[in-house]
Automatic annotation (TrEMBL):
InterPro entries: Cro/C1-type_HTH, Lambda_DNA-bd_dom_sf, TPR-like_helical_dom_sf. PROSITE patterns: HTH_CROC1. Coiled coil: none annotated. Residues 9-28 form the HTH cro/C1-type domain. This is XRE family transcriptional regulator. GO terms for molecular function: DNA binding.
Length: 28
């Protein structure tokens, strides 16, 4: 269970980073 939660958090962080990058590119 712990590892699953960790992987989910990592995936969410990756998604957030990607979305932030897309937003930055859109603004630029």
């Amino acid at each position: 269970m712990g590892t699953l939660l960790a992987t989910r958090l990592k995936n969410r962080r990756k998604e957030l980073k990607m979305s932030q990058r897309e937003l930055a590119e859109g603004i630029c």
